[in-house]
Write a structure and sequence with these properties.
Two copies of one chain form a homodimer. With about 260 residues, chain A is mostly helical. Chain A folds into two domains: about 80 residues, Glutaredoxin; about 150 residues, Up-down Bundle (Glutathione S-transferase Yfyf (Class Pi), Chain A, domain 2), CATH 1.20.1050. The first copy, chain A, is about 50% helix and about 5% strand. In chain A, a hairpin with a 2-residue loop joins strand 3 and strand 4. The longest helix of chain A has 27 residues. The N and C termini of chain A lie far apart (about 40 Å). Chains A and B meet through strand 4, helix 3, helix 4 and helix 5 of A and strand 4, helix 3, helix 4 and helix 5 of B. Chains A, B: This is Glutathione S-transferase. Chains A, B: It comes from Parathielavia hyrcaniae.
């Protein structure tokens, strides 16, 4: 469902995503959950003045509302009276509400199993790729840490990336996962959407290495999950829409000199 | 309560923490929650053969149990039939069960507010300090990335550390936090224990910078929280016990050459 364009009253059921414009970034994980669920939401990345609302939070200028702790950084989700931050936290909140935690009714611990997978994907396939182009300092330009970025990227592609892909391949081959394309049994979970976005981003960032890994076939289930998510009707429509932003200078960046094959 | 020494049957209510021996590390956040709650638990760090159980998970040798996805890395928590990983995930599981999410009965969203704070502390005051001595690669020795570590540590102490401390100072001064020493209103939450451990570790790692920051008084509420947690009767007894391990070559390390004051 398209983001609603009018800001709704605080008490209706619309979700409000606050995130930087111009990059998919960490906000993208949240967009995918909202889109897959067909939820009604607004997105500051496409709203006039949206960036001011994000900046007000980041610069600690948002007045104390008395009912929420202040967020440290975007993404931020507003829903009715609630204001929460931290990507895995928002994903869990939305995932439990929007039916993206399979088997939750039978097993109240399902959410902790899905959450562990989402956290692991974010650690190894989002935060670590980000640090590949910012190994010395987040606040410095890439150009000021190019040599260190090269070393870090080589290590990432050689050691870390296959380790994380192997982990998800193993989970996808487990009895808990079952025979379908999804991590958690027969139904899609929000962890599948996270792994999709992570694999998609790493493919953009390290196309040579990911093409080699795909050819080698050791992580076939992970690449099949990526494809299966991209074919979900609502996700497919979203990916083809202008709401799906291009990768640029966010988490996943393409620098030819970092794109090593080994 | 002291860890129980005998492995209990899988169906009793004992919690089983699996973590590396010899360092407090990420496992320490979980120990503090279990100790504050007076929960019955075992700790592989103190068990004969405990390291083999951790290694079996890390080396993907643990048989598929059919009901849990495999963990990527320790800390791992076993409780009855459940096996979960990821520090913030385990903390949330234990925190909700052990009464360390204040106001949870009145506001089911309380856990998401506490979780955001725990995740932010782990990001900025645990993962980022770790990367100070491993900026290029987790798999390389510190000695092979000393120059980069120096640059990263300078940036961390100058820019990142005060930014995260200021965030928690602001939350502690909010109406949501109230007048006591705790983040979330009148009662201790597991996020307080996380912030305690993070501040404690960063004090060990960057004693000069932390002494200066404490003197300057801009983050007085954060330092007061650290002190208040250390004075909780069960935490105090724990910190004085042999179960509290010394910092060594884990997340928080002391290298004189990284201990800059500015």
């Amino acid at each position: 469902m398209a983001p609603v364009t009018q800001q709704q009253s605080a008490m209706d059921d619309t979700y409000h995503l606050l995130y930087w414009p111009g990059i998919p970034g960490r906000g993208e994980h949240i967009r995918l959950v909202l889109e897959e669920a067909g939820a009604k939401y607004t997105d500051s990345a496409f709203a006039g003045g949206g960036i001011d609302e994000v900046l007000a939070f980041v610069q600690a200028k948002v007045p104390d509302d008395g009912i929420n702790p202040q967020p440290f950084a975007p993404p931020i989700l507003k829903h009715k009276d609630l204001v929460i931050s931290q990507t895995p936290n928002i994903l869990q909140y939305l995932g439990t509400r929007l039916g993206l935690v399979p088997n939750a009714d039978n097993d109240p611990n399902s959410v902790f199993k899905v959450n562990a997978l989402a956290l692991t994907a974010l650690d190894g396939l989002s935060n670590e790729p980000h640090d590949c182009h910012h190994p010395v300092a987040t606040g410095l330009y890439y150009e000021d840490q190019k040599e260190e970025s090269k070393r870090r990227s080589e290590d990432y592609v050689k050691n870390r990336l296959p380790k994380f892909l192997s982990h998800f391949e193993r989970v996808l081959g487990s009895q808990w996962s079952g025979s379908g394309p999804w991590l958690s049994g027969s139904a899609l979970s929000y962890a599948d959407l996270v792994v999709f976005q992570c694999v998609d981003g790493v493919k953009f960032m390290f196309p040579k290495a990911m093409a080699r890994l795909e050819r080698e076939g050791k992580h076939a289930k992970v690449f099949a999950l990526h494809k299966a998510v991209s074919e979900r009707p609502r996700i497919k429509a979203y990916l083809e829409s202008p709401r799906r932003q291009k990768y640029s200078l966010g988490i996943y960046r393409y620098y030819e000199e970092l794109d090593n094959e080994t």
